[in-house]
Amino acid sequence: MIIFLVCTASWDHLICANARSSKQKKPAKKSPQPPPPASSPSNSSIATFNVLNYGAQGNGIADDTNAFAAAWTDACKVQGSVMLVPSGSVFFVKPISFSGPNCQSNIVFQLDGKIIAPTDSGAWGSGLLQWIQFTKLKSITIRGKGIIDGQGSVWWNSKHSTEYLAAETDADTESGGRMPSTRPTALRFYGSSDVTVTGITIQNSQQTHLKFDSCTGVQVSGISISSPADSPNTDGIHLQNSQNVVIHAVSLACGDDCISIQTGCSNVNIYDITCGPGHGISIGGLGPDGTKACVSNINVRDSTIHNTSTGLRIKTWQGGSGSVKGVTFTNIEVSGVGTPLMIDQFYCNSNKCANKTSAVAISDISYQSIKGTYTSRPAYFACSDSTPCVGIKLSNVDLTPSLRRNDPFCWEAFATPAINCFTRTSSEAPNASASSCST
Fold it and tell me: Residue 312 sits in which domain range?
């Protein structure tokens, strides 16, 4: 059956709807978060390693780093073990890595207490990329009702804290010292498989809250991530070189992208997300410094985005190569979002980006059942002259202004249907760029 699409674009209102469409589907009700796990495993046969038994004080003042390291050393040796961070205590932990690859599988990091980061410069040396890291592990789970608190305000609250901190000097600490210019990710997983993160809260990260790099089989659910809207570069969840990822029932409020998807990511499914404030859900920026980027098969559905600068965004640098393809955004409700729909192949985070010919190719991008309000413009599709965006599909898109009113913007974007903004349809599009990634 062929369904024809009827679309209109006035100076302030973008609507794309199925001509035969009935009532638009509402976003699914938010799934209840999984109940918090018990503070300690009830099965006495499970080998449990409580950090208090290794000398942790849990008073928020004494350094508990060595106790955490010692508990991990023992837990690492036992398959299916539990490393317990108990409730009722606050643990002061300096930068630490819980490392494999010689650890047993199916280890559980049971977080029911609170972990806080150092706020003095001495703990960070000349600068580190992460605070708490899990590396080269198989079937690792972090679960519980506990909190990871990066205490990032000492990094943000500096005259040097601009949006991208590209040329910053060190930030002031509370005691008058200087924090390194390199700000760490609060919680990072690297080179691991079958990773589960559920139930916990991550807040006030120094930079990104939760990062997965070179991981496969990732499950994230029932967690909360938060930092102030003006905290610079505090992405919620950052994915890089990771495949087969599921993120659902997550609340994200931060100072940058709620979810950031970078090169090397494929088969990512995101649903039942609440995002805002922040910069929305983003793919990119891809292709900086002439690099090749490959992203495919990304699905975002049944989610709410509110009070963010952008909503559903794909951003690439000029001069890059590779491709973004097979991206679907379905049943998304936006409220007070600056620009809900954005593809920007001219992304630049400074005033010094030179014009370049090559670009990361963008194709097969679908927007279905997107509704709500915007504050700047409903859509912005700025595509490369040499590598236009092809295969953009819009269905049941209804975006209305809440404050400022501007036309949607389109440049070298080929879409179905061709509305006033899209001057040419996908059937008129050139062949896919040679820079596209192989499947």
Answer: 264-432
